[in-house]
Specification:
By secondary structure, the chain is mostly helical. The protein has one domain. 72% of the residues lie in helices and 0% in strands. It has twelve helices and no strands.
């Protein structure tokens, strides 16, 4: 995620990092070269006795813009829902630890429960980003628990099971009543719902055929556009063609980024920073002195 300070409107025009221009620059360059080639071949093109006009491109452009807008809205809805789910995880985790601490103020094993909560957040992050988890989880789990978690089909879900087992043990010891255990278990159910929601977004992309037809139409439109513009615009063709192509191709690429909000691209959610914030909060709530450093945006104003 790009976290930039407020900029003057003129400075924002020339922003490079955080835009999709870096990804599509080569494609725009090809469109520019094609436009120049069409200008050079204009005498031969007009001698063929037929020409493309702007009229069909105006109609097609409106249709493409409508469908691109619909696709971008669908992808942004996935992004928004993903952020809401991680917000719910923050709420449920903090509330759960607050209730555990006030109910079991003198429990000597509470630090184990805190680390299970932190391990869950990191496990969910790495599951969504399809990264190996052993090295990170080893900082929070004992060797026996780590082995059980890594052998599970869903490591994050198994960590939830370990949290439930910890609470069940406190009930067996008589430290928790059945009513309090049920209340804490509801918090775990809330966290489980977050896990399922994130898995649904990560494992259910937009229908491939829908994205494919839009992708093909956008690029065919941009390839044919210079042939329709050159007769009327002549030497202005490259400028107008690249400008229109930038709009359509950028929207197409941005939708691809937002479709998977859990990645590490410029416009994806900062899961590392969210886990870092949650870890600091939970450790502070547990009255621990050793805290990780607060993550800050890098030199490109990006939080991962």
């Amino acid at each position: 995620m790009i976290v930039r300070p407020h900029q003057h409107w003129l400075a924002r025009i020339f922003v490079w990092h955080g835009s999709v221009l870096e990804k599509i620059f080569s494609r725009l360059l090809l469109n520019l070269l094609l436009s120049v080639a069409v200008i050079l071949l204009l005498p031969w093109y007009t001698s063929l006795g037929f020409k493309l006009t702007v009229a069909p491109f105006s109609i097609l452009g409106i249709a493409i813009a409508i469908f691109l807008g619909f696709r971008n809205n669908a992808c942004y809805a996935r992004y928004t829902e993903a952020r809401l789910l991680w917000g719910q995880l923050m709420i449920a985790s903090r509330s759960l630890l607050r209730e555990v601490k006030t109910t079991l103020p003198d429990n000597a094993t509470r630090h184990t429960f805190v680390r299970l909560q932190i391990a869950f957040a990191h496990s969910l992050r790495m599951t969504l980003r399809r990264k190996p988890q052993a090295e990170t989880l080893a900082r929070y789990l004992d060797p026996h628990s780590l082995t059980r978690v890594l052998n599970a089909h869903s490591p994050a879900n198994y960590i939830l099971l370990l949290m439930g087992e910890w609470l069940a043990k406190r009930r067996e010891e008589g430290a928790l009543s059945d009513i309090l255990f049920h209340s804490f278990n509801n918090r775990l159910n809330d966290i489980s719902a977050v896990l399922a929601g994130c898995e649904r977004i990560a494992n259910t992309p937009l229908p491939f055929a829908y994205s494919l037809i839009l992708h093909r139409t956008v690029y065919l439109f941009c390839i044919m556009l210079p042939f329709a513009l050159v007769v009327d615009l002549h030497y202005m063709t490259p400028f107008v063609s690249v400008l229109i192509s930038y709009t359509f191709i950028a929207l197409d690429v941005l939708a691809e980024e937002l479709e998977d909000p859990f990645g590490e691209e410029d416009n994806d959610l900062p899961l590392d920073a969210l886990c870092n914030t949650l870890e600091i909060d939970l450790l502070q709530m547990n009255d621990e002195d050793t805290l990780p450093a607060k993550m800050q945006p890098d030199k490109y104003y990006q939080l991962t």
